Amino acid sequence: MKIAITGGTGFVGRHLARKLTANGHQVVLISRGVDHRDPTIRELAGATFAAIGTNDPSALIQAFQGCDAVAHLGGINREIGEQTYANVHVQGTQNVVDAAKQAGVAMILLLSFLRARPDCGSPYHESKFAAEEIVRASGLDYTIFKAGVIYGSGDHMLDHITHALHTFPIFLLVGLKKQPVRPLAVNDLVNVMMASIVEGQLTRKTVPITGPEEMTLGEAVGRIARVANKRRLTFPVPVWVHYVMAWFFERTMTTPLAAKAQVRILSESLAEPALAPDQIPAELMPKTPFSDDQIRIGLPVPERFGMKDCLHRAKTV
Fold first, then answer.
1. What is the DSSP string of 200-217?
2. What single-letter DSSP state applies at residue 248?
3. Which of 136, 148, 149, 314 has CB atoms 3.0–4.6 Å from 114's, for a disulfide?
């Protein structure tokens, strides 16, 4: 098969591309920029790279030619200039769907967010749900995955938490109420995506996908700190304080330590889905625990946040 992946140089996109090519499939990596955490992805055997964004319908049509499916994984967690939630999540998804139809692609896979829903006061959540609605109304075969927190090599979760643990003497938790989280191993997510794309399972389904273990964010941070050998005190801090810090980080950091959308995400349960009517079969359910070994595999090189993180540039994948 030949599969196009939007956000192909991003975290999940890279893992899916490597899994597909390892199984003999061809991939087209579509990315407006290059995620510099793994520049070798463009040299992946069996992959071609298209330096385009989802805002270019004609280029998308050309990139989708000959593809059997599109995995639409591109997205943002903060707005910069024209890279707004409306442009990227909503119009971008409409462009991907329209281009897929014109190129004769039969199936689209969408990676959405576990708590995406309308009328909740969060532009991030609402735009993700609007993207789901576009895919459901497309007339194409589709699978929509509503995922919670995803971790693994090259992620944002382990990367940011580890860097924070190496930089600050304490770790500030979002909100005074303990919210549950179910960390999802990226390999588990990719395996279920493979079942959808390659084997045709979960057709016309909107499914939630989370990890097998439920814990609080504080407990998850504690496990990461133990493996990184950087034990820190954790303190719950009101959500509004985190919004103020996120406002500052978004304006000063290349990849913000926290973004406003992330604060909203972490202020809610990351264990219970919203508006996800279907279920993943038992044999496809994620089974990888958030264990020391799994955390160790995904840990980045230990280092502190520094000046390189404070050069404000817009990087998208």
1. -TTTTEEEEE--S--EEH
2. H
3. 148
Instruction: Average the pLDDT over each of 157-161, 205-209, 221-225 and give the range with the smallest value.
Output: 157-161
pLDDT band at residue 15 under the 50/70/90 scheme:
very high
Task: Note the pTM of the prediction, 2 decimals.
Answer: 0.87
Under 8 Å between Cβ of 11 and 154: yes
Reference 303, options 183, 137, 165; nearest CA is 165
How many CB atoms within 10 Å of residue 76?
21
Cα atoms in the Cβ-side hemisphere of radius 13 Å centred on 297? 12
The DSSP symbol for 262 reads H
Q: What is the DSSP letter of 75?
A: -
Q: Give yes or no for a contact between 309 and 66, defined as CB atoms under 8 angstroms apart.
A: no
**How many angstroms separate the CA atoms of 158 and 11, rounded?**
12
* Both structure tokens of 196: 């959808």
pLDDT tens digits for range 108-118 = 999 999 999 99
> Which tokens belong to 310?
């404070």
Q: Which of 15, 70, 25 is nearest to 45 (CA)?
A: 25
246 neighbors 263 (Cβ within 8 angstroms): yes
H helical segments located in 44-199:
57-64, 85, 92-103, 123-136, 157-167, 186-197
Write the Ramachandran bin of 154: left for phi over 0, alpha for psi from -120 to 50, otherwise beta.
Answer: left
Q: What tokens were used for 128?
A: 């993700």
Q: Is the dihedral of CA 101, 103, 106, 109 positive or negative?
A: negative
Contact between 92 and 54 under an 8 Å Cβ cutoff? The reply is yes
